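Appendix B. Chain record.
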Amino acid sequence: MGGRTVFSRVSGGIVLDSFSIVSFFTGLLAVLPAGLLLLVSSSGPRSAAAASAVSVVWGVTVLLFVSRFAQLGIAGDSEGGLFSESAGPWSGTVLVAVRLLFLWVLWAIPFVAWAFLKGEPQAPAGFPGMGLALLGVPRIPILLAIWAGLGMVLSFAFVAVAAAAPGFGDLFSPGLWRELFSGRFGELFVAIAGTYGPPVSVLVVFFPLLVALVPLNPKGALTGTIPFFIYAVGMVLSLQGKLCGAYAAASVVEEGEVSESFAVAPPAEAYAAAAAPAAPVPVHTAAPGFESPAPVFADPKQLHAAWRSRLSAGDLEGALEAAREAIPAGLAKKEPKLAAEMYRRHLDRLPELGLDRTELDLLADQLLRDGDVAAAAWTFSQALDTEPTDPKAFKGLLRVAEHHLEKAKEPLEAIRVYRYLLERAPASPFADHARDLLGAAERRAARPATPQG
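Structure tokens predicted for this chain:
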């Protein structure tokens, strides 16, 4: 039913990690906003507005949670929780959620149009209908019924596209859709089964106990369903997000062609040069089977002050040593601007900073937000040179190219970035998408300049 990529291996770990107490707390956080609103509204007179408000709050919560977990899936963090930093800033999560909502709105347009245009509950002439008229359900045209059935598959495809798209306009890129889904529908159904299978398996264990409890204590049995419901909600939201994110990030290569380890290779100097090799950037990984304890970080502001003091005194070696400790601390304790400032100062000695791939991604994101496009592009290129299948680095450079094209109005610079991506990572899942963007940038660059009047 399609090709096999590294997703087939990654998905098992994601499913396994969902069988933890974290899923319960995820579900609790998910149902809390809508649940509290429902509790408050139930104390007064019932109204359609209150029910609509609960539905809206629940829908927004689901969009944000699934989008957040999709970012974790793309980052390769199968164990990460809702507030894990490897998913990046929440502003990015909101953008993914908005893109996901837009795709759902497009999917719902045929149903809205049918509801407005139909004059009778019966199906329009010429279209055989289906439905249960005895239950008062209006007959639905067969084409709409098929479209509704596809909603299950599309709900997963939409999450993958919304998380993988570098920008809003990329939702309509044929190249992006082709790279994500061409020959991979079997894996998409693996994501669907992996999302709903674990809650069903828990229910199979839980249901006999519930049935046995009903004759003894009906209220207790009913109360016992609440923790299960919360646990199942957490599992479904985290599984759908992470599996769709991992699906989007998987390289389109046969299983076994890609190593799961983060191999070290000599990176290119920068995307603009794209030819002369730079010094290798070592990536620190734990030995197989060894789980290192979580590091304890000092106050990043104090470390930053010490770094600045040494830098002002001309102690470059001391400043570098302070930066080695201060940059990870700044990233871990929500001070990315301080971390980016120190990182920017020591770019020429990047290998000595000892940063891992996740830290480099976070720093590059912050540099791009700060407007330091050149430093962000160079940082993304280091990750891509080390691992050409790194989806975050590829998407980061797509954002760099978009900045050159849309904000700086420099299509030639954007063309250089796209060409670098296609040269460095031709097997990336987003390579065809980059080719589409390259063609658009070349057409824009070929247009005569508009005279300023």
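Further analysis of this model is presented in Appendix C.
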